[in-house]
Amino acid sequence: MTKRLENKVAVITGGNSGIGLATAKLYKDEGAKVIITARSDDSYQNAIAEYGKVFDVVKTDITNLNELENLYTHVKDKYGKIDILFANAGIAYFAPMESVTEDFFDSQFNTNVKGLFFSVQKAQNLLAEGASVILNTSGVNTKGLHSSSVYAATKAAVRSLARTLSAELVAKGIRVNALAPGPVETPIYSKMGMSEEEVSGFAKSIKETTPIGRFGSADELAKAALFLASDDSSFVLGTELVVDGGFSQL
User: What's residue 103's pLDDT?
Assistant: First the structure.
């Protein structure tokens, strides 16, 4: 049986953990050549040590345009094209409005919006005809969740980009869509700037308000990312596939 991503070249930003890593593994299983990025020196070295024989790992801070250009120069020289771009890298910090600082605000917009936008812009000349671009949004971009004002706003901006970039790239046969995870068991919760007690309380609250009654898994999101990457979604354009256990829908 033919694998769904046979001979495809896939780039996944932030592919060294969580949803990105689960997706990288699934894409690899489906026949793709997979390039993942890691942001810091430590995460890059860890990814090389653990996954360097499976994936092509490139150290890339998506907020640094020179590093993005270096990433795509590497991809061009080694692979010549990109068939799938999963702009997955992002950060999440929650705080009530009165606690938001300029650095808190800028760091999230720089990564989740600026970094994501330029991840696509810098790749556009490598995107093959029929390529699929997937942007990582979030179920909170349509939900008034307490303390999520900055993070949710970044993801609402990304949802808009799925539409506007679709309008710009469709003439080249390139599809752009968004994948909106809900509460998913990934390392991102430990990086939200909250204490262990706050994270525990936050997780309890989210679970109680998710209709399906549990967190999702990174593997479940990876299956949705596979659908958007493959020809199974060939007539899907500019949309947001929400995979959140009903969190933002019911």
Answer: 98
CATH code for the domain of 66: 3.40.50.720
- Give the pLDDT score at 193: 57
In this prediction the pTM is 0.94
Q: What are the E-state strand segments in 4-156? A: 9-12, 33-38, 56-59, 82-87, 127-136
The reply to whether 44 belongs to the active site is no
In a domain, 132, yes or no: yes
Q: Which of 27, 44, 151, 189 is flagged as catalytic?
A: 151
With 0-12 / 13-18 / 19 or more C-beta atoms within 10 angstroms meaning exposed / middle / buried, residue 125 is exposed
Instruction: Give the chain's length.
Output: 250
What range defines the domain where residue 141 resides? 9-242
Compute the distance between CA of residue 63 and CA of residue 61 in angstroms, rounded to an integer. Answer: 5
Amino acid 55 reads: F
Residue 235 lies in a domain: yes
